[in-house]
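Reopening this one. Same input as before:
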Amino acid sequence: MAFYERQTKGFVNIDPLQTGGRLSEDAKRVLVEWGDGYSVCDFCTGSLFEIKTPPIRTFVSKLLPEFLGTEYSRITNGAREAKYAVMHALRGKGEEWIVMDGNAHYSSYVAAERAGYRIALVENSEYPEFRVTPERFAEVLDDVAKRGNVRLALITYPDGNYGNLPDVRKIARICESYDVPLLVNGAYAVGRMPVSLKELGGNFIVGSGHKSMASAGPVGVLGFNEDFADRITRKSERYRNKEIEFLGCTARGVAVMTLMASFDYVARRVKRWDEEVEKARWFSRKMEDLGMIQLGEKPHNHDLMFFEAPPLYEISKKAKDGRFFLYRELKKRRIHGIKPGLTRHFKLSTYGLTRDELRYVLDSFEEIINKYSG
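Same output, byte for byte:
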C-alpha cells in the first residue's frame, strides 16, 4: 500500500537522528527473519538476558560490556529508558537532587522529573560555542551539595544540538570528589565513535541503538559496574527472574536482533572515527564559505553540527514558500534531514556519507542560494 512507502527512500540523508542508525546489510536480513511478533520470546525461559540461542546472553554478558568499557550491560527500550532505570534505581527518600548539563536532551530532564528529583542545570557558555565546562559543573555541584542531597549527576556526550564533547574525565573526577555517581548519556557517541566508560570515568553509560548503532528501534544500551549492579539488577520478590528496573524484559524481536546483527559492523566502523571527524570539519569549512556559521566547538569533534544560516534566512523573508522554501528545494534535490520550516538555523550530520554525497549537498546549498539571490 502506498502509505507504507517511505517518501525519502534513496535520498541523501543528513538527519542526525538517522545517519548513525542506518541498518547494516546483516541487520536488514535479520529484520525480515525475526519480524514476527515476539519471535525472540519463543526461546525465553523467563529472562531475556539469559537466552542462549539466539546468543543474547553472550552479547549482554560479554560483547556489549567489553564494547562499553563496563562490567555489566543491559538492553533497554531506548536511551531514555536506560537513563530512567538508573535514576529510579538510585532514588532514595525525601528531597534529592540531580545535576545535569544545560545541553541535556529533554528526555533526561523528563526522566529525572518522573523519578522525583529536583533538577539543577549546569548552564552552557552560550553563543557561539554553547560549551559545558568542568569548572562550571563543579560550581553548580558544590552549590547544590551545600543545600541538599545530590544523588546523581548526568553529562551529555555529545549533546544533540551542537555536537559538543565536554571533558567527561574531569567532570567524572569532580563528581567522584563529591561522592556523586555520574551517568554519561552517549546516545550520539556509543556506536559512532570509540567510547569506554573505563577511560572516561563515571559509573553508568547509555547508548542508543536506533540513533547510533545501526539497528532498528527503539532500542538502547546501558553499561554499569559492580558498585551499582545490585541496585540496577534487583529482582522482583514474586517473579524471581524478573529485574524490576527493566520491567522484567525490555527490547525484543527485531530491536535486539538487529542490534546484535550490526554489532561487528559497528565495532569496525568506530575505528574510522578520525576520518568522520575530518570529513565533518571539511564540510563545516565549505558551509562557512557559503555564508553559514557553524556554532558549537571549533574545530569541531563530532559529525553532528549546528549551523546558523544568514543567507537562507534572508531568502525566507521574500521567498514564495517563506520559511518552508529550503525544505522544498532540498526535497527536489533528494536531500532529507533538515526539518520543514527551518532556515535561520538547523542541525545536520555527515556521519557515514561519502565525500561525493557531501559535495552534492554543498553544491545544492550553493545552487539554492544562487537561485534566489540572482
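So the earlier flakiness isn't reproducible anymore. For the record, Residues 355-373 form the longest helix (19 residues).
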